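Exercise 7. Given the components listed, write out the predicted structure of the assembled complex. Treat all entries as one system.
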Amino acid sequence: MASPARRPRSAARSAVGRAPQPGSPSGAAPVEPRTLAPPERRAARVLAVERVGSYDLITALDPAGPREPRPGQFYMLSAGERWGGGVGERPYLPRAFSYARARPGRDGVELDFLLEDVGPGTHRLRELRAGEPLLVLGPLGVGFRAPGVERAALLVGGGIGVAPLLCLESELASGGTPPRTMLGFRSAAHAQAATLFAGEPDLTTDDGSAGRHGLVTEPLAEALAADAAVEVYACGPPAMLEATRSICAERSTPAQLAMESGMACGFGACFGCVVQTRSGYVRLCVDGPVLDAATLDSALSAGGSHQG
Amino acid sequence: MSAWQLCGVPLGGPILNGSGTFDAIAARRAFGDALLEAFPFDLFVSKTITLEPREGNPPPRLWETPAGMINSIGLPNKGLEGFLAHDLPRLAELPVPLCVSVMGFSRAELELLVARVAERDEVSLLELNVSCPNVETGLIMGAHPGETAAALERLRPLCDKPLVVKLTPNATDPAEVALAAEGAGADAVSLVNTLTGMALDPRTRAPGLGGRTGGLSGPAVRAVALAQVAGVAARISIPVVGMGGVSSGPDAADLIACGAAFVAVGTESFRDPAAGRRIGEELRELGVDAPRLSPQTA
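Answer.
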């Protein structure tokens, strides 16, 4: 199996922009947008934890990991110390996070992760301070595929789900086609995350405290009514992804959905993170987290994210 | 000649994976051939296969608990024919011997599974997962000594490869089941399987898992595993593969001190795919070596 990590560096450099197309004239099997992970958990070093509105942005230096993860891929994270012993004697399992940005440098790759304090795992992670160890496994999963021929990319993010769209935006922009981006948040405090984007995203909030009052799927529907010949890239809560899937299906617009499900391992071992597709359950960690919306009857996954 | 032998199968060390806690085929998609260059186990145990394909239980399938987790996976697998055609050739590429775990819902199903798997050269050992109900008697095979013995007596003549019986801790007296297995021709036993557990969704106070109950694993079960391994090992003379919450070399050494000849790593691999290799190295650093581990191979 050809893999991005084992291709020559020149070919591996661009993630989304140059990935071969499914059904390409050559007839070759499409290469999965997947950078292979080293087969062990390793220690990265926290460089900073900064507040971005209602979220926290953890930056860590990963000295031994691959320098070019693909947008949409994720890492399993845990604190190097005091992982456990929190509320309810948790956390125990690592937590899965899409990387938000990656900056290869002389000493390794700097990885940014966006997180929200919703449970014992995320709470412990945001307590980390510069210099402390962050255990990482990754990059894992299959990332976003390149847009179809003659289709512009349209990015749609909701809440903490904007994270993988940051590196995707950057990839597409460096390939010469900065995407249009639409982001939805609960409130102005959460919408601070929009400032991380290079472009100027269309903004909506549930309470109208920033941008347009409403759901991000409303401007999406309007955009597709005007021009459906785009490829949608979406990440966000299940209800948002389901609305996105449904709106795109009505217009026959292809959509790639970065989904979430509670995971124990991240590499296919536990069979816990399955979501229902038209061809049965698939493990989101090895067959996703990015799924082609056309494979789903619904993006409302019962897997949820119980761990926090 | 390897110093380590499980039922005559030479191994490079004492660390196995618990069945269903590591999918070597999926892991190769994530890690590539680097996985094979530093494979974490000395023997690979497959996920349990059944005669017919199974989709598994509805999600949610996982629940984190204090120092552990509950899973309600439901044995998804490709079924016997799918396994033999698609998975077995891939598992044969691993750098270690292979043990295939099987489960049947009737004695006839078990006979077919064991006969078909045992005839394949890629397979070194078979493990019988008896933690399921027998549809003919309604009893959990592994929870009753008589059920276990009756199943094994019919399987033994069909298979000239070592048969390992995976004991369930959800039995009144696992040592009685182990004795019955030994008497009926088992070559080794492995324990503990997961403990039946339940979790409630804090928002609804309804069962949090799609399958309502599941199996508890992780450090939370380690003390139970030590007691059960000690209790079983004291009663039988065939080798015991010990497992249950092993996260470190000292944990493995504890199980060995309780009578285990080999140690399986399960849930800890979810936290770190290289856990098996690390635990094996820590065990060596503790000075636990082959002669002490497998006296019956002398």
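Discussion: Chain A has seven helices and 16 strands. Confidence is low (pLDDT under 50) at residues 1-27 of chain A.
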